[in-house]
Structure formats: C-alpha cells, structure tokens
Design goal:
By secondary structure, the chain is mainly β. It has one domain. About 0% of the residues lie in helices and about 40% in strands. The chain is built from no helices and 5 strands. The protein has a 5-stranded antiparallel sheet, with no helix packed on it. Strand 2 and strand 3 form a beta hairpin. The chain starts with 9 loop residues before the first strand and ends in an 8-residue tail after the last strand.
Length: about 60
C-alpha cells in the first residue's frame, strides 16, 4: 500500500490543525513527524487518517 504523504512534506494533524508538521519517516502505516517551527520538540506519531494536507478545521 502506497503512503499518501511523502517524507519532507508539510502536513497538519486533525487534532491540532494550526500546527505545521514535517513528515520525517513512514513505517508500518505510521507517520513520524517533527514540528516545523520547533525541531527540538519531541517527535509526534500519527496514522494517515489523523493527518491532512492543508491547515484548517477538518470536517467530521
């Protein structure tokens, strides 16, 4: 199965839609992300369904 987002791409989580994230790695259907404006912050982990390509409010 092909992943939807590529390494280095900027995405946003549905939980925090104003926080830009950079995809660092994709392994076993899990995305490992760094916060764009704070690269020293702890890495965040998401499933594809928890991410969106554009910022804003996600539709339910």
């Amino acid at each position: 199965m092909e992943n939807k987002y590529k390494e280095g791409q900027i995405v946003y989580s549905i939980e925090y839609p104003t926080l830009p994230l950079i995809i660092r790695r994709y392994v076993d259907r899990i995305y490992y992300c760094k916060v764009k404006d704070d690269p020293t912050r702890k890495e965040l982990v998401y499933f594809e369904r928890q991410l969106m390509a554009t910022p804003g409010v996600a539709s339910s």
